[in-house]
From TrEMBL:
Record's protein name: DsbA family protein
PROSITE patterns: PROKAR_LIPOPROTEIN (PS51257)
Thioredoxin-like fold domain location: 60-245
Lineage of source species: Bacteria, Pseudomonadati, Pseudomonadota, Alphaproteobacteria, Sphingomonadales
SUPFAM superfamilies given in the database record: Thioredoxin-like
Pfam families: Thioredoxin_4
Length: 251
């Protein structure tokens, strides 16, 4: 169950979000303990598609894009309000998609580690258009992160008022204060559709429960945290993560 959103926490959340506070642990300096494997052959995608256009919800509640049978499985625990996640997305998204996922050798799953109510609201809305849209919407959200923080700061009173609401009304108020309705409407998800998604509070509850349970069980202490074939390799930049994928056979 997601935590109660308190007024004092709301004020602190705005300040920390605007400041783009650290949201990950220190980058792992070594190669993550990934053993060097033989190079994996590319796998042709389904006719008329790229592998990056193939996506599905996983049993863990994440969204995976790419070949479901890819021998190399990359998982990222990420927060939609994490500045380090935004930096990683800017550095890596195009390369992961074009060089690795579309080769059929690597699948790429994003799972949510929820840091705050805005993060949870975005996580629900990013699922509104189905799994195929989740990764692109997440990437565009990270690219828009500073603009979202500016909107929240300008709407601080509205944002804090959202802390007094409960259930779907709280998510509705947060989405309004953060400019998320406009953001998603510009990407084909109407306000009515978005509000309908947010009204299904069981979705938010499940995302938050998965975040808490998996973070504890898998020792995910910050974002972005990466797993390669089930091995936790910690918080990485693209410069340090890509060699690990290559050692795992994606070359």
């Amino acid at each position: 169950m997601f935590r109660k959103f308190r007024p004092a926490a709301a004020t602190m959340a705005v300040a920390s979000l605007i400041a783009l506070s650290a949201c990950g642990s220190n980058e792992t300096a070594d190669e993550g303990g990934i053993a060097e494997a033989q190079a994996v052959a590319t796998v042709p995608p389904p006719a008329g598609k790229e592998w990056s256009e193939v996506a599905a919800v996983t049993p863990e509640g994440g969204i995976v894009e790419g070949n479901p049978d890819a021998p190399i499985k990359l998982v990222e625990y990420a927060s939609h309000t994490c500045g380090h996640c935004a930096e990683f997305s800017e550095q890596a998204s195009d390369a992961i998609r074009s060089k690795y996922v579309n080769s059929g050798r690597v699948s790429y799953e994003i799972r949510n580690q929820i840091h705050d109510p805005i993060d949870l609201t975005f996580a629900v809305l990013a699922r509104c258009a189905g799994p195929e849209a989740f990764h692109p919407l997440s990437e565009q959200g990270w690219a828009n992160l500073e603009a979202m923080f500016t909107t929240i700061q300008a709407n601080n009173a509205q944002f804090q008022a959202a802390s007094q609401a409960t259930g779907a009304a709280r998510f509705d108020a947060i989405a309004s204060a953060a400019g998320l309705y406009d953001f998603f409407a510009q990407r084909g998800i109407s306000r009515d559709q978005a509000r309908s998604c947010l009204a299904k509070t069981d979705t938010a509850t499940k995302i938050a429960e998965n975040s808490e349970k998996q973070s504890e069980e898998l020792n995910v202490t910050g974002t972005p945290t990466f797993f390669i074939n089930g091995k936790n390799v910690g918080t990485q930049s693209w410069a340090s993560l890509e060699p690990m994928l290559q050692r795992a056979g994606a070359r």
